[in-house]
Design goal:
Number of strands of chain A: 14
Number of helices of chain B: 2
Radius of gyration of chain B: 16 Å
Oligomer: heterodimer
Mean pLDDT of chain A: 94
Order of helices and strands of chain B: HEEEEEEEEEHEEEE
Number of strands of chain B: 13
CATH class of chain B: Mainly Beta
CATH superfamily of chain B: Aromatic compound dioxygenase
Radius of gyration of chain A: 19 Å
Shape of chain B: globular
Distance between the termini of chain B: 26 Å
Shape of chain A: globular
Structural class of chain A: mainly beta
Strand order of the largest sheet of chain A: 5-4-9-10-11
Mean pLDDT of chain B: 95
CATH topology of chain A: Protocatechuate 3,4-Dioxygenase, subunit A
CATH topology of chain B: Protocatechuate 3,4-Dioxygenase, subunit A
Structural class of chain B: mainly beta
CATH superfamily of chain A: Aromatic compound dioxygenase
Strand content of chain A: 25-35%
CATH class of chain A: Mainly Beta
Number of domains of chain A: 1
Strand content of chain B: 25-35%
Strand order of the largest sheet of chain B: 4-3-8-9-10-11-1-5
Largest sheet of chain B: 8 strands, mixed
Chain lengths: 238, 177
């Protein structure tokens, strides 16, 4: 199975001066574009045996037994598919996020917002045979960060995905529909295609909400495609 | 800051039994054990201390496992020293369609704050010069002087050095593959 050439137009630019950390960390050469080989066409396979019973429930997977994290309860769900539209089953999804006050549980997070003793901030799940996934968490808050004199990240959840090939490896962020900080964010603006930003913005999904319990957001993810066809022409050139 | 990938490193314990990907090959008897040490260096020459590095490779016979996580690893640069270490076995030569072979190599994926999309590169081995000379990926490099950025250099028996430079005269070759 060959991998589709990556569509660089929808991915963030490596060098994006408004995001200061990118200036010294963006390679100056374009990556060397080559057809995939078995190294990229294979990848690790994660079994459901790695999952604990609360791995997909961030409201309860940390802290005191039976305690629940503070903040608005939400369900995030969606479908993982590749560029051909085929679902990607058995995909490991790892997520992490700040708490309802905008604070990460990380030794280097210096924001003064409080930690929640019952919120760790990470979770994981594996897609079902239809590529579908779901987890429960609390809605994270925006937070300030030291990029400019007054920079705030929109509320977001970090996503890491393994498809069926290491060349499909993806890390991304999910934003929430209606957040006015999205268009102001210099990390988001590294993506020049507005439709690609829209793809990262999860709409409220009223049909999937749990009445008197949790709102739901829908976040579908498209991984790089795989095909039997060998590509002769490169999408980008060198 | 990739809390969900290396929670123990972030100081977040108690959600999972252990960080994923610490063991690449549980049974080291399957091949010669090696350690690859290195750093990730930014455009100012400073060491990056918040990088996560994932690797994927064949076994010593050039075969990729297709049923488990064997051959996959995840490590990070040390928060204090900036050093990373990959404890694995030396991969073998990979056969591909058309009778070609790929020289022994490890696929590497690097992420860190400020890296907007994960960077892929490969570790080849400087002590495999004959196989490297026949490798179809290495031979595609238009500037052959940059090949050295993809070579892990032997330091001692079983110990290699591989530094990843994000910018500058010796910028590592990154791959869109």
């Amino acid at each position: 199975m060959r991998l589709f050439p990556r569509n660089s137009a929808i991915h963030p630019k490596a060098h994006h001066p408004p995001y200061k950390s990118s200036t010294l960390r963006a390679p100056s050469h374009r990556p060397l574009q080559l057809p995939s080989t078995p190294t990229e066409e294979t990848g690790p396979v994660f079994g459901h045996d790695i999952l604990g019973p609360l791995d997909a429930d961030l409201t309860r997977n940390f802290g005191a037994t039976d305690a629940v994290a503070l903040g608005p309860q939400i369900i995030v769900h969606g479908r993982v598919q590749d560029e051909t539209g085929r679902p990607v089953p058995n995909a490991l999804i790892e997520i992490w996020q700040a708490n309802a006050a905008g604070r990460y549980r990380h030794r280097n997070d210096e924001y003064t917002a409080p930690l929640d003793p019952n919120f760790g901030g990470c979770g994981r799940t594996i897609t079902d045979p239809g590529g579908v996934y779901s987890f429960r968490t609390i809605k994270p808050s925006p937070y300030p960060w030291p990029n400019g004199p007054n920079s705030w990240r929109p509320a977001h959840i970090h996503f890491s995905l393994f498809g069926s090939a290491f060349g499909q490896r993806l890390i991304t962020q999910m934003y929430f529909e209606g957040d006015p900080l999205i268009p102001l964010c210099p990390i988001v603006s590294a993506i020049s295609d507005e439709r690609a930003v829209d793809q990262l913005t999860a709409p409220l999904d009223l049909d999937a909400t749990q009445p008197m319990d949790a709102l739901a957001y829908r976040f579908d993810i498209v991984l790089r495609g795989r095909t039997q066809i060998q590509f002769e022409n490169r999408r980008d050139g060198l | 800051m990739h809390i969900g990938l290396t929670p123990e490193l972030a100081g977040l314990t108690g959600v999972y039994p252990a960080d994923l990907g610490r063991e690449i090959f549980i049974d080291k008897a399957k091949g010669p054990g090696i350690r690859i040490e290195g750093t990730v260096i930014d455009g100012a020459g400073d060491l990056i201390k918040d990088a996560v590095i994932e690797t994927w490779q064949s076994d010593a016979k050039g075969r990729f496992d297709r049923q488990s996580t064997i051959g996959w690893g995840r490590t990070s640069t040390d928060l204090n020293t900036g050093l990373f270490a990959i404890d694995t076995i030396k991969p073998g030569t990979v056969s591909v369609e058309g009778g070609h072979t790929l020289a022994p190599h490890i696929s590497v994926w690097v992420i860190a704050r400020g890296i907007n999309a994960g960077l892929f590169t490969r570790i080849y081995f400087a002590d495999e010069s004959v196989k490297n000379a026949a490798d179809p990926t290495l031979s595609q490099l238009s500037d052959q002087t940059r090949i050295k950025t993809l070579l892990a250099q032997p330091q001692a028996p079983g110990l290699y050095r591989f530094d990843i430079r994000l910018q500058g005269d010796e910028e590592t070759v990154f791959l869109d593959i």
